[in-house]
Amino acid sequence: MAGRPPPRRGMSAALAEAHRLAAAGEAAAALALYDGILAGDPAAADAANNAGVLLRRLGAGEAAIRRYRQALAAVPDHPDAGWNLGRALLEADQADEAWLHLRRAAALRPGWERWHGLGRACQARGDLAGAEAAYARALAARPEAAETLNNLANIRQAAGQPEAALALQDRALALDPGNADLHYNRALLLLLLGRWAEGWREHEWRWQAAGFVSPRRRFASPAWDGGPLPGGTLLLHWEQGLGDTIQFCRYAAAARARVGRLVLEVQPPLATLLHGLPGVDAVAAAGDPVPPHDAHAALLSLPLLLGQALPGPPPSRLAAALRPEPGRTGLVWAGNPKHLNDRNRSLPLGLLAPLLARPGRRWVSLQLGPRQADIAAAGLAGRLEDLSPTLADFAATAAALVRLELLITVDTAVAHLAGTLGVPTWLLLPHAPDWRWGTAGETTPWYRSLRLWRQPAPGDWAALLPRLQDALASR
């Protein structure tokens, strides 16, 4: 409830007292006093801005945004309200409006923090040139800012300049050698560049990186060091995404050769598919009680633990007998919308409509999730059969894949499954691909049946279309 408005002659004293309460950590009392001030004078910009700061700190993002807007309505050139509003909007994934406010804030009060914030907004909008210019100004103001060097490295990588990105990461690590996020980003660059042995060593920093998607698991057993464990049971557990599990289960047999028994814990949609995998004595679904074991390891640590830096072949158990039907062509155009890079790796289904118009092909969709609705939205229901109701898990997806003459897909778990099964697959990659696909070429050591199609420029899926049409015609 808003506090009672103080008399107008006491506004300055009330504002000073609210500031004091806020500084002392008495947020509720400070907010009540700010509310009282604003009830008496809705144009009290400092009170509105500072109330927004407190609300944001308390996790009330939408209420904070309303207060920042109130401050700006009263004083459009308020030195801090636009800056605070821009940051709050950026946190709320409203990058376009955030950019407008952060650009104005940087012009009003230029400095490292504001140029860095503007760079983040440009980055979120996919404006690589704008982000690079903003980060360059930030570094001019503070050359030792490791976080800006890291973000600029990400921009260079997105622009297809991984070597330049790695040089920036090295500069950042020289300034902040214990920063786990910098080490993890450097690991992904090394792997992208094919520097496997060094990359796998750096990759162990992922567990300490704030932005890593899979928190480190805690077990009563010790972590496995890759050495012999005769008579003991090793628990190999999943991490990251479904595609990562499919890709790295190839190392299970080599791990099993060093231990007495091996239990593989995977995400539930993969449990049926991976039963009977060579070297795996039992498969457990994540969420079920963890089976007894003597040591544990994460799947993506196996190349380092086993000393097998180079990619090995997929497990033969999953290289199924293919039963392709002539002309039957599968399509997947979007990945998990929660993936951090989904905006770059997924594409609009309508862009592929000219492919679907080609005669002699029976097109089927293996798309799952909310983007299934794209079929109807793009008016393609008559050309593209939706198989999603039949794809209850990855075993069912595998059964659908082996009937395909060809799969065309973006970088998502289905590509890994198709590659493991040996299904001919065209993988459509963004200009800055995920580390596992390297920087150039049409082939990958991970899967022999994949052909890689790379964007020639960031976001330019349309440039691939004529090449895809010609290649389909030649089939």
TrEMBL record:
The keyword Nucleotide-binding does not apply. PROSITE patterns: TPR. TPR repeats lie at residues 45-78, 146-179. It comes from the Bacteria. Keywords: TPR repeat. Pfam families: TPR_17, TPR_19. PANTHER family: PROTEIN O-MANNOSYL-TRANSFERASE TMTC1, PTHR44809. This is Tetratricopeptide repeat-containing glycosyltransferase family protein. It comes from Paeniroseomonas aquatica.
